[in-house]
Amino acid sequence: MLHAHDSSDKGDSSMIAAISDVHSNLEALKGVLAKVTRADMILDAGDVVGYNAKPNGCIALFKKHRIRSVLGNHDQSCITGDTGNMNPVAAQAIDWTRKTLSGTSMRYLKRLPEKLELSIKGRRIVVMHGSPMDPMNDYVFPWASERVLERYLDMEEADILILGNTHVPFVNKLGDRLVVNPGSVGQPRDHGTESSHAVIDPVRLEASILRTKYDIIRVSNEITGAGLPVFLAERLFQGL
Fold this sequence. Notes:
- With 240 residues, the protein is of the alpha/beta class.
- It has a domain at 14-114 and 183-237: Purple Acid Phosphatase, chain A, domain 2, CATH 3.60.21.10.
- The chain has helices at residues 26-35, 55-64, 73-80, 88-100, 103-110, 146-156, 216-225, 230-234; strands at 2-5, 16-19, 41-44, 68-69, 116-120, 123-127, 160-162, 170-174, 177-181, 195-201, 206-212.
- The strands form 2 sheets. The chain has a 6-stranded mixed sheet with strand order 1-5-6-7-9-8, with helices on one face. A 5-stranded mixed sheet has the order 4-3-2-10-11.
- α3 crosses α4.
- The longest helix is centred in the middle third of the chain and has 13 residues, at 88-100.
- The two termini are 32 Å apart.
- The relative contact order is 0.19.
């Protein structure tokens, strides 16, 4: 687990950019990173790779921009080769990604923790891919009840809980605490074709979801050109 304590003097506010589920979509990642240049840090809720055609490029940008990430279920499958819980299309993409990853990229994935715990401006922030019930594989959708979300916040003793995995963004403020899913950078599934990310002010306990256009045609051509399933290219145009 990573523990980070903010000791810099940046006034009474700071900004966190939260991303998730980049899934090897380099064009989408570049677009989001261009929008969050003023963020004090970038936190990622997992699944750096899988589905799309540029895993090594995405990992290189994560390292360049010092993005702090947790391990997602697709990242884990790339490490282990175990695709038993995946549908055939996702499993095929994992097999392709494992063959494509450089040794440096694989080592990067193997170093990712299942959970990040940070203290920023006096707020305890916890990041994971799934949920406190199953940090790697669980799904927490926008319609999750407040009682469930409050239980998750209590389990982690968190002021801000950042989750991924669903590819569907939401912000839920529960009193003086926040649960945020930034949605997906690389494969949105809320019927929108634009990348999704979140901006969080940990002092004011405010968060918003932002969308970013990217060159879907280029990415879809990369997918088909790499021999990945055509469905993975088609779904980007539908936001599914």
